[in-house]
Design goal:
255 residues; alpha+beta; Beta-Lactamase; Arc Repressor Mutant, subunit A; 2 domains; 12 helices; 47% helix
Length: 255
């Protein structure tokens, strides 16, 4: 209890100051046991900005490398930030599709950073920005339980109110001194305009981690129709695997 009271006082005192992001993350961190945490700003039309970094070295290298250069586009939390409703706290496996462990995002980022489980908090910050606080447990540790989620949710009214109040003050930002990155623009093998709108939907769902069965259910089509769409997509883009589809997606940034 004393830890929460102290963190609350520090959060209130930080309103309107450059230490607000750090105090906000510290306040949320009182709810759950974790090994690493970060506060990142998601934007509608720009790469993320890292405002507070309390990560382990294994995570840090990937975060400032592939993640903010483009892999964030496939993060279940980034996708949730775009879809809403917010604010919200969630465990990654509660919002990721059933095929997430087999997805390229999981293989190329999540499984590489030594994380067994992750929880996130998403809070609207106005002007197309969303505060994303991530908390992770390292490989070999227990996954987050439903009780951990409830404890984080209990703090949500205070966190959401604090963000709203902070952003209403004049001349303030969140993460002014954070690190960002320019998106990498690699030449795609084919433009996104080569795909139909339904094929673009299929690409997004494949890369999110949906299995063929799950994808068919999402679009209310047959499994065979999904396979036909996949064949057409691969032919149009001149690729032959999900790994190549992943690279094409990061290069095109158009769907």
């Amino acid at each position: 209890m004393n830890g929460v009271v102290t963190a609350t006082a520090e959060l209130i005192a930080a309103l309107g100051t450059t230490s607000f992001a750090d105090r906000l993350l510290g306040f949320a961190a009182t709810a759950i046991m974790h090994d690493a945490a970060a506060l990142i700003l998601f934007f509608e039309d720009a790469p993320p900005l890292v405002a507070v970094d309390r990560l382990r070295p294994a995570e840090r290298g990937y975060l400032y490398g592939d993640y903010i250069s483009g892999v964030y586009l496939l993060s279940p939390f980034y996708r949730l930030a775009k879809k809403g409703p917010l604010p919200r706290a969630a465990r990654i496996m509660d919002i990721a599709p059933e095929g997430f462990p087999a997805s390229e995002y999981h293989r190329r980022y999540f499984s590489q950073i030594g994380v067994a489980d992750m929880m996130g908090v998403l809070i609207p910050a106005g002007k197309g920005a969303t505060v994303f606080m991530s908390f992770s447990r390292s490989t070999g540790h227990k996954r987050f339980a439903a009780t951990d989620l409830r404890q984080l949710e209990e703090l949500m009214p205070v966190m959401a109110a604090a963000v709203k109040r902070h952003m209403a003050l004049p001349d303030v930002t969140i993460g002014k001194a954070g690190k960002s990155a320019a998106p990498r623009r690699l030449p795609p093998s084919a433009p996104a305009s080569a795909l139909t709108s339904r094929e673009a939907q299929v690409v997004n769902l494949i890369l999110e981690g949906h299995s063929t069965k799950s994808l068919a259910a999402q679009l209310a089509i047959s499994i065979e129709t999904v396979r036909v769409h996949r064949r057409h997509i691969y032919a149009k883009l001149g690729i032959s695997s999900q790994a190549e589809l992943f690279h094409w997606f990061l290069a095109s940034r158009e769907i």
